[in-house]
Amino acid sequence: MRKTLFFTLKLNPMVQVENSQLTTECNAWRASLRNYREEFNQAKTRLQQAASRSLSKDQLRDVEHLHNQFHIQLINIHDLKQAIKNHDRKIGLETNEYNGQLKEETLADHESLLGQYQDLEMTLSELKDEFSDFLKSINKEELVS
Question: What span, in angstroms and rounded, lies between the C-alpha atoms of 103 and 105?
Answer without folding.
Answer: 5
